[in-house]
Design goal:
Blueprint lengths: L1 H63 L4 H16 L3 H22 L3 H5 L1 H36 L3 H8 L23
Helix pairs in contact: 1-2, 1-5, 1-6, 2-3
C-alpha cells in the first residue's frame, strides 16, 4: 500500500513539474510575442509621425522649387505606400522608398539657399531629423524583440510548446535590396 502511494506521489510530482514547465514556457512566449507587438506598434507610431510631417515639408519646398515636381511626386507616392503598408515587409520597403525620396529632396534643397534659410523649413527639417532618429531606435528595438522571441520559440523544449500552440517566427524590419545605393538626382 505504501509503495503505491510513493509511486503516485512521484508520478504526481513529475506531472506537476511538466505542467509547470509547459505553463512557464507558454507564458514566456506570450510575453516575448507581446514585446514584439508593442515594439512594432511603437515603430508604426514613428512611421506615422514621419508620414504626417512630410506634407508640410513638401508644401514648403513647393513654394520655393515648384519645378521640382518629380521628386515631390516620388515623396508623395512613397508616403502613400507607407501609410497603406500592412505587413512588416511592406512597411520596410515603403520606408526605404521614402528615405530615398527624402534624400533626393535634400539634394534639391542644397540648390535653394532661401529655402534652407526659411524658418518653417528649418523647423520641419529638424522635426523630421528627430523623427528619423526615433524611427531608427524603434526599428532597432523591434528587431531586438524579434530576435529574443525567435530564439525563445526555437529552443528546446520551447519549440515543442511553440508548435503545439502555433507560435510562429516573426519577421525582422530589414532594409530592402538596393537601399544602400545613393540616389541619383539629375538636374538636366
Amino acid at each position: 500500500m505504501k509503495k503505491s502511494y510513493i509511486v503516485l506521489i512521484i508520478i504526481a510530482v513529475i506531472v506537476i513539474l511538466l505542467v509547470s514547465s509547459l505553463v512557464r514556457g507558454y507564458n514566456n512566449m506570450v510575453s516575448k510575442s507581446e514585446s514584439v507587438e508593442n515594439s512594432l506598434s511603437n515603430l508604426d507610431v514613428m512611421l506615422q509621425r514621419r508620414a504626417d510631417l512630410i506634407p508640410n515639408l513638401v508644401n514648403t519646398v513647393k513654394g520655393y522649387a515648384s519645378h521640382e515636381t518629380e521628386v515631390i511626386d516620388k515623396i508623395t507616392e512613397a508616403r502613400a505606400k507607407m501609410i497603406g503598408a500592412n505587413t512588416i515587409e511592406e512597411k520596410a520597403e515603403a520606408n526605404e522608398e521614402l528615405s530615398r525620396a527624402l534624400n533626393s529632396l535634400n539634394i534639391i534643397v542644397e540648390n535653394y539657399p532661401d529655402l534652407k534659410a526659411s524658418e518653417n523649413f528649418i523647423q520641419l527639417s529638424d522635426e523630421l531629423a528627430g523623427t528619423e532618429n526615433r524611427i531608427s531606435t524603434a526599428r532597432r528595438d523591434y528587431n531586438e524583440n524579434v530576435k529574443d522571441y525567435n530564439l525563445i520559440i526555437k529552443k528546446f523544449p520551447n519549440v515543442i510548446i511553440a508548435n503545439i500552440f502555433g507560435f510562429e517566427e516573426k519577421t525582422y524590419f530589414e532594409a530592402s535590396e538596393g537601399s544602400q545605393e545613393v540616389p541619383s538626382v539629375n538636374f538636366d
